[in-house]
Structure formats: structure tokens, C-alpha cells
Amino acid sequence: MVPVLAVSAALLAATAEGALAASFGVSANSFTVSGRSFQISADTLAGTDFVQYGVVDQGRSGSYPEALSGINSADLYDLCQSVVQDLPFVGPVTLRLTSGTAGPPAHADRLVVDAHDLRGDAVFHHIDIGQDASTVSGVPGVQGSPGGFGEQAATIRIDHLRQQTRSVSAATFRLPGLHLSVTSGDRSCF
């Protein structure tokens, strides 16, 4: 397992047990999350100026510890995003979005993802692990709380990306070949 993923998993476990709540910041997102988890997958995510630290997303019915990952410039090849919701009298319904499946990849500027589960094969270049979260500088305006655990890298590449998240934001998100579908049943990305 890549060290950063192991550290992220340990941070989430410690937060769930209440051991690290004081070192987590409030999410950089300026909205109340629904609390519903959704999936994002990509064959490859390639980005520059990566930062990561722990946050707590606020929802109407609770708080959610997450690992905030910020990437200043990100390309996502064969992007898929899905959420399944049970509807009365209908059952499970999947809203699914795909982009970058043929031709140019999906692209995001100042991408911020608050994830509680991330899997893939990752490579980081020029990574600093254990940096004070308030001093990370890869993504303008995206910094953690003073004394919080953080990390940053010059570049990131994740192949076979699979993540569960509650929020995603970006300054710009280009989605070439966008396809949005709503179908009955569970048609999750993975």
C-alpha cells in the first residue's frame, strides 16, 4: 500500500474514534453536504500540485470525517460518477455521469474532493508527508487547520481510481463527451 493511503486510512480510523477531531479542519466546501455517499472512478487521474489533510464535512443530519484532497490541475481518463438512491414505490435508481471515455480526458482546475474511501495504484513525486496542514500551498485557498496533519506533492497519478466521497468542487470542470443517465436499479461505477 502506498504510504499516503495508509496514513489517510489511519487518520480516518482515529477520527472515527474521536482521537483526532481537534486536528481536523472544516471542509473547504462552502455548502452543506447531503450526507449521501457517491462513487467516482477513473482509469487514470493525473494531476499537479496535490495537497491532502483531514476535514469534517457538515450535513443537515450529522458530521462526516473525510480526507480532503486538492489538486490544482487534474486530468481524469474514463471518468464515472454515480449515486444510487432508493425512491418510494420505485426502488433503487442510479444517476450516472461519464466523461473522457474517448478522446480528451475530463479536466478540473482547483479540484477539491472530500473522500472517506480511496483505492488505486498511486505514484507521487516530490511528496512531503506530515507537513502542518495550514502550510500546504499546492492549491490556492485550500489549507487545513494549524497543527493538523497534512501532505503535499508536486505531482500525483492514480491508476484504477475508486473512491467514495460526499463532496466534490472545482473552479472549472470540463467534461468532454458528457453522458448523464438515470436508470432503474443499481448501475454504480464500481
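the 2nd protein, sequnce then structure:
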Amino acid sequence: MKRKPDKRLVDELPDVDVPPGGFGQRELAVIEKLFRPDMPDGELINLYFLIHDWTMDSKWVFGARFKQIEDVLIARMCGREPEAGEVRDLPGFDPEDYREATEFVCSGEFTDWQILELYAIAQTNLTDDEIGHRWQAILDLCRAQILRRIKATRAAATRRADDETASRAGRTPAEIEARHAANENYGERIRAWRGKIGMYERGLGAALCLTEKDIMEAEAGNPVIDPRMMLLPLIFADDYCQTYEDAHRSTAATYVTQFYEATRRMTPKVREIWLLHHVDGLTVAEIAEWQGISTSMVTQRLREAERDVARYGPQPPKPTGRKLRGPRL
């Protein structure tokens, strides 16, 4: 956020109705308006470091609210509330130590307190004309590491909850591990499929752009030809033969997106049974024996999955063109 030299940070805050009071009352009112314990991770990080700057100047005004938001962010990163006497081994980097700071954040061997402190250090060094861009890269890496830790903590909590549910259902540890492996395999297949479709479409789109560029330059009488044009017949020969039209190229990506949306809306139990039946090829009786439930329950969950696929999954293409009529008698 760019500011004029004579403009205070308090002047950039949104207008709120605040009763007359002492210093910092307007900022505290904005914090009350923005902060929610269930707010998105990115917004929580932004709010945390905004209040961090204010707290450095006036800890007696913003210290309590800063501690509350800091506890929420740390709890998301490590899955527990921080202890009162927890040791904070904070890193100390001078502005010229950007190389060491980059290696530190890329190593991943840091505590939650250290990555938050390094984020704050990077923020203070952004105004340096010579090395500000290097600290901007460190700032982005710190943010990515914070979000990665939050995601990993949530995934671990979800897995523990699934393990407890499976243990209460009487499943053995081997069965629980096999279930996690099946879910991870499903996720890897979907991600690989979407990545393959995306790379294919980007490559074909680049080829078409180069072709259009060459045609335009030829029409304009420009003798300069992109040297990459000579490689297009070799690189995209099969692609041009198979799918050339935009409508056909977008069908595959639409199919993947709709299929992913349909499976995402299924409950974990229904999705697992549907994948075991359609992907792994198990019969209803085999799935019932594996899950420890009746065949009627397996059939019922398969019907639920089929309804989700029919509602949210890929739809059959609608016929186009005029209808063919038979000969008149």
C-alpha cells in the first residue's frame, strides 16, 4: 500500500463509527470489525502483520489484540494453542543477510515463531532501494511456508479424526492405512490428469498463437519469421491431427473439472466405495467384505454416488444441427 509522506497509516483505514476516546481507538475498532476466528488464512496473515506494525509502536494499546490474533495463527500452524512460557528462538538477520535468510526459509527447519519473525523482518526491509526486491522474494517464500504448515496441520488433524472413526468401527491398522493410500492415490490421479490436460492445452494454444502471428506478419510484408515455427510440425503433429478445434480441446478439461466436482461432493465413505468399484474393479460382494458392511449398504452408497455423478459430473453432449426426418410416404 503506497502512502504519501505526510499521510498517516491511520488515515488509510476504512471509516468506522467510533466513540471519542484515546489514541488507537479507531484502529482497534477496525480490528474488531475485521477479525474473526474462522477468517481465511490469507486474510488472517495480512491482519496479523498489519497489527504487528502497530504493536511495535504502541504495545500497550494493541498488545492484547495482537496476542489474540497471534494465538489463532500459531494454533493453525501447529494444531495447538501456544504455551505461556514457550521459548521463542527468533532469527536475527541484518538487511545484508538476505542470502542466509533465503537459505533459512528454503530449508524448512524452523519453528513457527521463527518463520513469523522472519516474515516481519522481510517486511521491514522492503523499502531498501538496493536489496528490497530480494527481501520481497523472502517475504513470498515465508508466506508460502506459513500456508504450507497450516495445510499440513489440517491434513494431519483430518487423518487423525478418520483413524479414530475407523478404529471405533472395528477396522485394523492395516485396513486404515490401505484406506488412506486409496484416497491419496485418488488425489494423485486427479491432479495428474488435470496437469496433463492443462499442459496439453497450453502447448497447443501457444502453437496456434505462433501460427496466427506468422500469418499476420506475412500479410504485413514482414520477412522476420519466428524460428520456433520450424519446430511446430514436429512438436505438435499428433495434436493437430487429433484435436484442432477449440470446442473439442476444451471438452477434456471440462470433463475433468466436472468429474472432480462430482467426486468432491461425495462423502468419504461413498467416494471410497465408488472408487473401489469403478477404478479398482471390485465387485459389490468384495467391497462389502472389505468394508465389513452388508451388500445392500454397498449398493445404496453406489446409488448415491451415481446420483452425484449424474447431477454434478460430465454431461453427455447435446445433439446439434437440424433433425433428420424420414422420407415422406
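The two ends are 78 Å apart (CA to CA). The chain has a mean pLDDT of 70.
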